[in-house]
């Protein structure tokens, strides 16, 4: 299987871009500490990244970057594209973080699920845009503590569906799915994936990464898993396949991690040993996936994979017991 040109460990379905890290703070027209965890979309044949940028105070905002080829020559907005507005939205007092972008088929708009951070803890907030130039805030849609949320692009039995990671005191951090008719009131909460305790690579907590990707075989769900070690935590990626019509049904789940920190920019940064993607793009013609990920909470990397090789790998994976 294709892997990193730095190390061959784990399954490594994704191959790193030789230009990595493709984006650092040096590209920004204003001072910033770090840029990472970017949502991704394609608009008028331009690749759009909506990246989390941490300023020199430690407060995060979101900034748009555009590229024709999705790899090089990124053009950032001249100022923060989506700064926190705590005066109107107090849940954003300590910043806005980790956006996931979904184009909603029925509304013909891009929906952005992001983490609003304040004294209340992390909360899932929602915004809409059509052009990534103007944004319509909708505010908090799920109570704290909750994050790692993304919407499916279509409805199921007239209901929107969101994947998210709520956390209750003393409980494991697992992946849940909830449903809503209006994107405001959510119910039918179902846990779909649990972290695996013990020595597993995803034993400490798990959470969804980019929005689920619709394919002919089901919904591809990429998720991060965290293992806590004596030298700190390690963020790696696993993959699952959800039923196309009943997305709460998990068809396959990888036992191994399929991508993890290996190169220096992933191993050392503001948070060591982290690969954390919030966006991916599938090119239907080439069958290639472009995965944009935060590296060590400091920069943005790019990795690619062939979707048919992912399907072949998933065929070897077990179907987990439903929670």
CATH topology: Tachylectin-2, Chain A
User: Domains counted in the coordinates: how many?
Assistant: 1
Overall, the morphology is globular
Give the DSSP E fraction (strand runs of 2 or more residues): over 45%
Number of strands: 21
Give the name of the CATH architecture.
Answer: 5 Propeller
Radius of gyration: 18 Å
Instruction: Write the element-wise H/E pattern from the N-terminal end onward.
Output: EEEEEEEEEEEEEEEEEEHEEEH
Q: How far is the first residue's CA from the last residue's CA?
A: 31 Å
Number of DSSP helices? Answer: 2
Mean pLDDT figure: 94
Helix content: under 10%
CATH class equals: Mainly Beta
The CATH homologous superfamily is termed Glycosyl hydrolase domain, family 43
User: Biggest β-sheet, characterized?
Assistant: 5 strands, antiparallel
Structural class: mainly beta
Spans of at least 5 consecutive residues with low confidence: 1-9
């Amino acid at each position: 299987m294709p892997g990193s040109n730095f190390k061959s460990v784990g399954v490594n379905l994704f191959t790193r871009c030789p230009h990595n890290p493709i984006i650092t703070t040096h590209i920004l027209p204003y001072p910033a500490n770090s840029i990472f965890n970017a949502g991704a979309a394609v608009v008028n044949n331009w690749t759009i990244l909506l990246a989390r940028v941490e300023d020199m105070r430690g407060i995060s905002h979101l900034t748009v970057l555009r590229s024709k080829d999705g790899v090089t020559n990124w053009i950032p907005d001249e100022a923060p594209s989506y700064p926190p507005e705590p005066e109107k939205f107090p849940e954003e007092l300590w910043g806005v973080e980790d956006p996931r972008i979904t184009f909603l088929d029925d509304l013909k708009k891009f929906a952005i699920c992001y983490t609003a951070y304040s004294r209340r803890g992390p909360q899932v907030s929602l915004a809409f845009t059509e052009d990534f130039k103007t944004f319509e805030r909708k505010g908090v849609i799920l109570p704290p503590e909750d994050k790692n949320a993304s919407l499916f692009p279509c409805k199921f039995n007239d209901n929107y569906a969101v994947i998210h990671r709520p956390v209750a005191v003393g409980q494991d951090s697992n992946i849940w799915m909830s449903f809503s008719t209006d994107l405001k009131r959510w119910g039918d909460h179902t846990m779909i994936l649990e972290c695996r305790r013990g020595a597993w690579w995803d034993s400490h907590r798990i959470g969804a990464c980019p929005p689920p990707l619709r394919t002919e075989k089901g919904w591809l769900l990429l998720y991060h898993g965290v293992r806590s070690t004596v030298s700190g935590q390690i963020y790696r990626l696993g993959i699952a396949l959800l039923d196309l019509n009943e997305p709460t049904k998990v068809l396959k789940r990888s036992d191994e991690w399929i991508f993890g920190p290996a190169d220096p920019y992933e191993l050392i940064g503001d948070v060591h040993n982290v690969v954390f993607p919030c966006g991916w793009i599938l090119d239907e013609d080439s069958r290639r996936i472009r995965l944009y990920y935060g590296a060590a909470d400091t920069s943005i990397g790019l990795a690619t994979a062939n979707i048919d090789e992912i399907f072949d790998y998933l065929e070897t994976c077990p179907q987990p017991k439903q929670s």
